[in-house]
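2024-03-11 09:14:02 INFO worker-7 job=invfold-0412 stage=load source=structure_tokens
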């Protein structure tokens, strides 16, 4: 197999956004559109600063802010919560960088890379599975941003947008209108593509960091310190209500925190394909992900601790906090939240499903149209209901995404030794085509990787009664179990089925 990124290349071609790609010869037309072809060297302009800014833009969002509240609510002290979040992101950084390597080396997006381990037809399954998860998150983030707009307008009009919930929807007309207005804002960036998203992330990142630090300063000054919550001991400590139960909470919490960005660990090639070098993608991700996540978790913990002193209650939700701050502060704070939500949503929850849906029928659906499909599904998932089930959902889909990551890593590093023949990724009868486009080693390994977590998942969502303790324990480690089981199964099946 060739270690070349472009092989026998003819000419360059621009996609619908004007980005230049390598045009390959001898490939099957129905397996590609211009968006999926290898990124040309001239289009690989993202340095480590750009990639770090991309991550800061994604990290600073309301769901991230709320992660610490879930952990502290389960009994952790603030420092235990922050360290759990930091550790989880150091862990997920490893597959993030490893899978990102393929994007930088070959300039290909996530669905095309999947063809190496699943085949051109089989790759559609994990690509769409990743896309559906992102559609859910897209809807949740759009709801959060729309609700911030609703709070601003409702405050300025002295409750003029308040009203009774609409039938079927369960939210009032003002809330739905603000949600749809924020949804429509996303369509501008979907229309203008990845470079418009990078532009937004680059300029928004310093603004969002400044707003976070300003919020921290406001809390410190108004509370005369950060309050007693930061000195409150863990509920798992000796003499506390949950003494000795730390590890039973820690492991499923760690799995959930890993699951938070496990989605991006899969489709990170969608971004690293624009990186100037492997050093840029490595440094950009290492600087942009774990530390900002831990910093933002600390800001959330410290500010919430201060709200106990300032308002007499712990206020975790930043929208509720902005509402309580009043005056012009509410507008500044909620504007920052709207920007934060937009930057996260576009990068984390639009690009991956857009590529995934495009991969279903590349000649009929380009990246822009895939983005529009994503936006439509995000509305239909009723995100204002889904948002109340984030923590359980994080563990549930990590049980699916862990196996996909395990298969990709086993294929790219252990089986292929990082060497891919790019042209064959676009051929029905190439070396990756398997049986009529299906690499059954990948498909079966995915099923095998999910199976150990299935009993725990069914019990957690109430579809079955109590399950055995061993399956509950396995489900607590869902992402890790799926990754290793599927990876090992893939290597064994590839040896048997793909002689």
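2024-03-11 09:14:09 INFO worker-7 stage=emit residues=499
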């Amino acid at each position: 197999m060739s270690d070349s990124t472009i092989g026998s290349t003819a000419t360059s071609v621009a996609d619908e956004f004007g980005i230049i790609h390598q045009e390959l010869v001898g490939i099957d037309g129905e397996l590609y559109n211009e968006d999926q072809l290898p990124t040309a060297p001239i289009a690989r302009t993202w340095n480590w600063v750009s990639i770090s800014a991309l991550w800061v833009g994604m990290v600073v969002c309301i769901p991230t802010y709320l992660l610490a509240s879930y952990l502290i609510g389960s009994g952790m002290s603030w420092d235990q919560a922050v360290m759990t979040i930091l550790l989880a992101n150091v862990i997920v950084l490893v597959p993030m960088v490893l899978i990102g390597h393929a994007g930088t080396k070959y300039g290909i997006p996530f669905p095309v890379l999947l063809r190496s381990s699943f085949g051109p037809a089989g790759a559609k399954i994990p690509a769409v599975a990743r896309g559906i998860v992102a559609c859910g998150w897209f809807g949740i983030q759009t709801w959060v941003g729309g609700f911030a707009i609703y709070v601003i307008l409702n405050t300025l009009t002295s409750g003029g947008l308040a009203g009774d919930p609409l039938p079927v929807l369960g939210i009032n007309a003002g809330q739905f209108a603000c949600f749809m207005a924020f949804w429509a804002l996303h369509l501008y960036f979907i229309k203008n593509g990845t470079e418009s998203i990078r532009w937004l992330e680059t300029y928004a990142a310093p603004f969002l960091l400044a707003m976070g630090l300003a919020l921290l300063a406001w809390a410190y000054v108004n509370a005369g310190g950060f309050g007693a919550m930061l000195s409150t001991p863990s509920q798992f400590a000796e003499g506390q209500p949950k003494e000795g139960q730390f590890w039973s909470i820690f492991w499923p919490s760690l799995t959930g925190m890993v699951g938070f960005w496990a989605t991006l660990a899969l489709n990170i090639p969608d971004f690293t394909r624009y990186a100037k070098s492997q050093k840029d993608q490595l440094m950009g991700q290492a600087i942009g992900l774990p530390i900002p996540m831990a910093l933002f978790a600390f800001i959330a913990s410290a500010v919430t601790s201060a709200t106990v002193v300032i308002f007499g209650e712990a206020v975790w939700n930043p929208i509720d906090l902005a509402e309580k701050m009043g005056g012009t502060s509410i507008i500044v704070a909620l504007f920052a939240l709207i920007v934060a939500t937009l930057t996260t949503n576009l990068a984390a929850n639009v690009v991956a499903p857009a590529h995934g849906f495009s991969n279903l029928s590349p000649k009929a659906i380009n990246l822009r149209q895939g983005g529009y499909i994503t936006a439509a599904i995000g509305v239909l998932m009723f995100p204002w209901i889904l948002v109340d089930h984030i923590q359980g959902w994080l563990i549930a889909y990590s049980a699916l995404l862990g196996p996909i990551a395990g298969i990709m890593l086993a294929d790219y590093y252990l089986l292929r030794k990082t060497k891919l023949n790019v042209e064959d990724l676009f051929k029905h009868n190439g070396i990756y085509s398997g049986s009529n486009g299906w690499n059954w080693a990948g498909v079966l390994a995915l099923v095998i990787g999910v199976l150990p977590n299935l009993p725990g998942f069914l019990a957690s969502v109430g579809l079955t009664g109590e399950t055995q303790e061993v399956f509950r324990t396995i489900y607590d480690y869902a992402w890790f179990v799926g990754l290793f089981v599927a990876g090992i199964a893939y290597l064994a099946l590839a040896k048997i089925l793909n002689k």
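2024-03-11 09:14:09 INFO worker-7 stage=report msg="Residues 52 and 285 are 6 Å apart (CA to CA)."
2024-03-11 09:14:10 INFO worker-7 job finished
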